[in-house]
């Protein structure tokens, strides 16, 4: 036990699962088992240093947050929900302290100093400032023929960047609740359509070309197409369909679990930053009395 790494930030999801001897598809009973493991490390029961109990508690809390988000995802089948780390845990409200601090004449300086010290940078903060200043991808056409040719070239370029991964089901939230970032575009069924500004300008055409048509099976007429579809229906095997669907669901559940773990770790970081910020606020307000 003394050789265990007690820095929880060094642990991946698989590391924590191995710590509690759990599989990726852990359920409520597995969470009870993990909790018993944590309790067994309590100093009163194990005679271990309290730091081990604190470490296992942190590991369990991460795992529990993953479980909560993943289970909620499974229930909200028809809800257009985007999960954020703020949904995972509740934060202590220091509103009264903030009110007292805001009345000070040097509030702006205090706020700016605290912001620089405690701000949390994420991947969404990078923006497209450098891209907006560039004009390398600006295309000009002098006539209709040149415009058509530019569009064909753009489609071919985008088509070469897209990896086709078969037909997949699509939910109302574009599948971005847990498995993707999901903050830079709207659902295709939304009445308010929006997109990331760079995506809107760089992917302004649908990358479907004549090559897509040529790569598919060709039919001489509608009758041959119908016969082929009827033949495919006759060869349909329900067992194969169920097996494929089960594998897809298992893969999705695993992806959701990894995403939930990422949110849980982000939440741990948020809580630490909030504690530090709250400590600073309380020190300032107490010293000003």
Task: Describe the 3D structure.
With 289 residues, the protein is an all-alpha fold. Helix content is 59%, strand content 0%. The chain folds into 2 domains: 8-121 and 260-287, no CATH class; 124-228, no CATH class. It has helices spanning 13-19, 28-40, 43-46, 50-75, 95-102, 107-118, 129-133, 144-161, 176-179, 197-202, 210-214, 222-234, 238-287. Helix 2 (28-40) runs antiparallel to helix 4 (50-75) and helix 4 (50-75) packs across helix 13. The radius of gyration is 27 Å and the shape is flat. The two termini are 48 Å apart.
Determine the N-to-C terminus distance: 48 Å
Strand elements, count = 0
The average pLDDT value, as a whole number, equals 71
Number of separate helices: 13
Shape: flat
Q: What is the share of helical residues?
A: 55-70%
């Amino acid at each position: 036990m003394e050789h265990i790494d007690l820095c929880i930030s060094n642990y991946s999801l698989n590391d924590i699962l191995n710590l509690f001897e759990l599989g990726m598809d852990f359920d409520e009973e597995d969470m009870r088992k993990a909790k018993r493991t944590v309790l067994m490390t309590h100093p009163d029961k194990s005679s271990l240093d309290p730091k081990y109990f604190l470490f296992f508690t942190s590991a369990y809390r991460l795992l529990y947050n993953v479980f909560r988000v993943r289970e909620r995802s499974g229930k909200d089948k028809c809800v257009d929900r985007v999960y954020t780390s703020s949904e995972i845990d509740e934060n202590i409200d220091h509103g009264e302290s903030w009110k007292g601090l805001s009345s000070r004449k040097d509030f702006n300086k205090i706020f700016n100093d605290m912001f620089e010290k405690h701000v949390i940078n994420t991947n969404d903060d990078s923006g497209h400032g450098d891209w907006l200043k560039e004009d390398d991808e600006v295309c000009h056409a002098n006539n209709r023929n040149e415009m058509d040719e530019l569009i064909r070239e753009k489609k071919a370029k985008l088509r070469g960047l897209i990896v086709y991964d078969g037909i997949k089901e699509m939910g109302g939230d574009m599948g971005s609740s847990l498995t993707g970032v999901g903050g830079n575009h709207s659902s295709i069924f939304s009445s308010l359509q929006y997109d990331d500004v760079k995506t809107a300008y760089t992917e302004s055409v649908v990358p479907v070309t004549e090559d897509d048509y040529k790569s598919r099976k060709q039919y001489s007429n509608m009758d041959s197409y119908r016969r082929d579809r009827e033949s495919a229906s006759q060869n349909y095997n329900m067992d194969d369909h169920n097996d494929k669907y089960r594998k897809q669901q298992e893969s999705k559940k695993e992806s959701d679990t990894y995403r939930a773990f990422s949110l849980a770790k982000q939440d741990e970081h948020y809580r630490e930053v909030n504690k530090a910020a709250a400590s600073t606020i309380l020190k300032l307000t107490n010293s000003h009395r």
